[in-house]
Amino acid sequence: MEKLTINACPLCGSTHLKGVMTCTDSYASGEQFELYSCEDCGFTFTQDVPVEAEIGKYYETPDYISHTDTRKGAMNSVYHYVRSYMLGRKARLVVKEAYRKTGRLLDIGTGTGYFADTMLRRGWQVEAVEKSPQARAFALEHFGLEVKPESALKEFESGSFDVITLWHVMEHLESLNETWELLRELLTEKGLLIVAVPNCSSYDAEHYKEDWAAYDVPRHLWHFTPTTIQKLASRHGFIMAARHPMPFDGFYVSMLSEKHRGNSFSFLKGMYVGSIAWLSAMGRKERSSSMIYVFRKKR
User: What GO MF terms are annotated (predicted)?
Assistant: First the structure.
């Protein structure tokens, strides 16, 4: 299997890289992967992951909730309840930050199409892109959405969109810097980029260390903090206009982390740690388990 070996930091170009911890793929393979960090800028990533053309098998498991609609078990039930709430919150955030009630929106990594459908119902013109054929088929069957494959990103004209959203997608994308350049090109001059990613400087990340479920190796290649994603955005001509915590993620990620550790009563223990994570983020939102970042083009 061909693997992606990173010899220079994608953020600052430094070759001063060091291994910081070993994480286990608890979903699909049981394999171990090394996390590396740049000694100069602190950016963290998963080393030697399967290349994009070969990583598909690591998503092929019914336990990978991002592309399943099962409600079996307490954690799945919580996931779907929170998703329903968050869909409304995300839609309101788009309207508020974009200063418009309708417009042209591109949702990258749309998964099974729930957010794209939500925005369509609110009057937006929506294009949706998704790598997984199974997820695209689900979106078509349940919402009538014609979701495009990843290759469609290169077919859109410059300045096609007022808003581009990536909800827990950026951490998966192999071509990190190329993606940011493409996003800038596809946005209008006053366009809005909204990116949600896990925060590896959160309370729950520090608590669980290598067992933190949001490291999700090898599917998650990049591990962002508020500082590193702001530096990455600046490098590609964006400024951070706002950032918002995702307080519910701390509960869900903590439950999964307890499950990965093989602990009994993982649901209850995860709720306890998630409560502490939530309180931590109340005082300092940059400690939230996941963050939503709002970027605008530099003028």
Answer: methyltransferase activity
